[in-house]
Amino acid sequence: MTPEPPTVLRCAGRAVARYTARPATAPDRSPRPYLHPVTTLAGRPVTETVPEDHPHHLGAGVAVPDVEGRNFWGGRTFVRDRGPVALDNHGVQRHDGFTRCGPDGFAEELTWTAGGEPLLREHRTVAATALTGTAWALDLAFSLTNVSGRDLSIGSPATNGRPGAAYGGFFWRAPKEAAAPAVFASGGGGPGPDGEEAVHGTRADWVALAGEGWTLVFAGATARTRDDPWFVRAAEYPGVGSSLAHDERLPMPAGGTVVRRVVTVVADGRLDRDGAAALVRQAVTS
Fold it and tell me: d(Cα 87, Cα 263) in Å, to the nearest integer?
């Protein structure tokens, strides 16, 4: 893919994110568009790209480790009864063009190809919205349509035999700091779970990471998105995703479409549960 200048998103008069549509990325990192850096309104970075621990992690975006055996996540592929294996099976998310592009967001068309074959077409929208003087929201929605002409399915290392590794879909890699971020989530009428172990794999309206002077609150903005369990890492590295294939593979019949939408609150400071919930209500309804 030919590199092009990043698209800059602005909110409250400030640059808060850069979107690289055609990255110069090694093939084994599954080249794909991504957001990085994303910052708080005060300018604190809250994404990481090409970290030493997982060099195929690229800021915030959409990545899937298994589309009918093709890797659109990057790195090694988890193979049942073999474990992580370096395979020549990486796909590319090709940026076909913007249908709308402005300072507060854009709409984009992409084609997911592997081995020269188009498998999926994607329509992606990204928008930045001001919430308060210290918080804004990043709204990312995507629809994936199977254009291969045959039935496909989406999987994850979990569906391929690695328990707890149901990553794939929306994913946000946060910066690694000296201490792991705090993790907490909404509850169904109660206080909600706390800690990585309790939150990982749960179905919650939202989950939060709170680091050194920043908080990210990830909210499923549609009922179908909220049905997907959350993939959460904090101790090993800080990252949150919404799992498309948690317990079993996600069927994608020929011509079928999968739609998801995640709204992320990006806040300065460390929010508590009530503060996070209030901002999510404002962000999802704004």
Answer: 33
- Quote the tokens at residue 99: 């249908």
Q: Are strands 152-155 and 250-252 parallel, antiparallel or unpaired?
A: antiparallel
Is the pLDDT reported for residue 245 higher than 60? yes
- The structure tokens listed for 257 are 């479409």
One-character DSSP codes across 100-112:
EEETTEEEEEEEE
Q: Phi then psi for 47, rounded to 5 degrees? A: -125, 160
Nearest Cα residue to 126 out of 110, 150, 112 = 110
List pLDDT tens digits, range 19-70. 999 999 999 999 999 999 999 999 999 999 999 999 999 999 999 999 999 9
Provide the H-helix boundaries in 25-161. Answer: none
Q: 222 to each of 206, 227, 261, how far by Cα in Å?
A: 11, 9, 6
- What is the number of other CB atoms lying within 10 angstroms of the CB of residue 154? 23
Query: Which two structure tokens, joined as six digits, stand for 54?
Result: 């997982």
Does residue 49 contact residue 176 with C-beta atoms inside 8 Å?
A: no
Q: Which helix (H) or strand (E) holds 276?
A: helix 273-285
- pLDDT for residue 18 is more than 90: yes
